[in-house]
Amino acid sequence: MNKTLGISLGKAATATLIKVAIAGVAVLGGTALVSSSVFASLTATATNTSGGSVSTGTLSLTQAASGVAGITGGFTTAITAMGPGDTVNRYINLTNGGTLDAINPTLQIAATPSNALTTSAGAGVQVTVKNCTIDWTSAGACTGVQTTALLATSASVLSGGAAPLTLPSTLAGAVSHLQIGISLPTGSENVLNGVLPGGTIQGLSTAITWTFNETERTGTTTNS
Amino acid sequence: MFTSKRFALLGFFITFISLVPISISPALASVKATSVSPSATSFQTGTFRTFATAAQTFTNPSAALSLPVTANTAKTFFINNGGTINQTAITMTITAPAAGSITNLRNCPQGVLFATTITCVGGVSLTTNNPTSGVAKVYTINIPANTWYQFELTESKTGNATISVSVSSTQIVTFTQNS
Asked: Would you call A212 and B34 a contact, using CB atoms and an 8 Å cutoff?
């Protein structure tokens, strides 16, 4: 009886186990012999005569305030004393400055502190994004082709996740001339004898950070 | 009880997994680019706070004005915009003392005082209104932030008139700014 493994085996079983082990070692050894000895004697090498250059592209997204005089406020200039029904348009050039094309551009915001301006879907800040194929004029007009990149979307939605932008082009080198419309709905607030109503959007302040994202275009397979 | 067949099968399995190559595909990673605004946009909303006071002030009383009046004697008061948003109109409710009625309500232009009961300083024209006691009436007057109007009230009874002023979000000056 073999009790080495803590298992009771008969003589016949022990013999079989030994045979299996021998067979396994034989197969492994044989494979090694075939792969090293036989093929080694038949190996030939071909090397390209000139260096095969491999380089990777880049994906780069940058934003800058419009350079058109009168609308250079960008995201850095404060917005003050906005009331229901007001709109402030800011102008940003979003550039895919890498060498790779991109897809799926998005916009997301983060607001600090969080208050009714960015949590109220009905009374809070609304954001609209439009694109022009050339620079916007200082009067907020597009003399090229104008498209809507983002329909009016509440800040509460934009702060909860990235919203897709519909841009005409996100190819490498493409520049999107964006008009960011920041507005407050007309609302229905009523102030009696100077006393602001509960849940008012009046007299509030927040700071909004704007984040644009894009993703590398789908990978390609080239036969060449 | 392990049988010889089971050991044979185990040996074959061990040999098989030792020789068959296992291919592990690399995870598909997507490259993303991000652009964050260089600084946060400071955003503030204004206020539209208009109220009535006996003397001109931008200090908000946060209550309706109780104005002592003498029957058939003109008494002045002020409507003040103590907020930061310009307004195009106000809604005012003047309630005369019991059993009384409003016999006259006049106002001079923005920032102009009454010279006499029937004239404004500088001879500018005044406006005459005909409100009904206790009934809200809309007055279409432009009141920029930090400006005021002087009104003059005459009633048929002596007592305290109550003057309440409200402004809704449809009575403010809105703008679209490109900057």
From this structure: yes
